[in-house]
Amino acid sequence: MPEGADVETTQKLTEPESTAGRRRRWHELVEVAEVLILAIVAVMTAWTGLQAAKWDGQQSLLYGEANRDRFAADAAGTLAGQQLGADASLFTAWLQARAAGDKGLQATYVRRFTPEYRDAFQAWLKTDPFVNPAAPPGPGYMPTYHNSNEEAAKRLNAQAADAFDRGTRARENAEKYVRDTVLFASVLFLIAVAQRFSAARGRVAIGIIAFGLLTFTVVSVLELPRL
């Protein structure tokens, strides 16, 4: 057989083997990449699930604090209203005793005022209210009058509003972690679909899409607050 024919035959025999080897190497590289993606997805899915559970717990805790402060604020506000109502009734009785000229009874009513109302009453008397038409109508209208329970109610309501807002943000964070968990599950689905393809191009194309989705989701997770 001529020497040229031997070379041609050798090339024909070696070319399929070379192509098959390259295909095997590409197949191995693709499998390694898929395994890496699956490993990352497994870890990140567990992480996002844990964070979602923690943020759900934080939401429940903060909403509980908000409810507790609301109840306490309502109680303090009710007590403040009762105190002001009692002081106003005593003040009305004091006016009647003053009109009757009974100084002993007037002193008794003044002693029964709450400390804050009594201080405001003394300041109100200094405005000469029975002569001065610009004087406030009563001690409760004095700028210096402060009811400690009313102030506590305002403070507790502010605390409740703040806790509720933080609870709402915690719920939003939990929902974002759940969203990312779903995205990681989508990556798993894409990898599973890619492994069903025998054509290298189709498998690689779906793998690239899965990697892009994985990268986007990982960046999203890293930007979220953590507990």
Give the tally of structural domains: 1
Helical stretch count?
A: 5
Shape: rod-shaped
Helicity, as a percent range: over 70%
Q: What is the number of E strands?
A: 0
Distance between the termini: 79 Å
Average pLDDT confidence is: 86
Beta content comes to: under 5%
Describe the structure.
The protein has helices at 3-100, 103-112, 115-125, 148-194, 200-223. With 227 residues, the protein is mostly helical. The protein has one domain (28-223). The longest helix has 98 residues, at 3-100. It is rod-shaped and about 120 Å long.
Can I get a quick summary?
With 227 residues, the chain is an all-alpha fold. It has helices at residues 3-100, 103-112, 115-125, 148-194, 200-223. It has one domain.
Please specify the SSE layout and strand pairing.
Blueprint: H1 3-100, H2 103-112, H3 115-125, H4 148-194, H5 200-223
Key descriptive features of the protein:
disordered N terminus, mainly alpha, rod-shaped, 227 residues
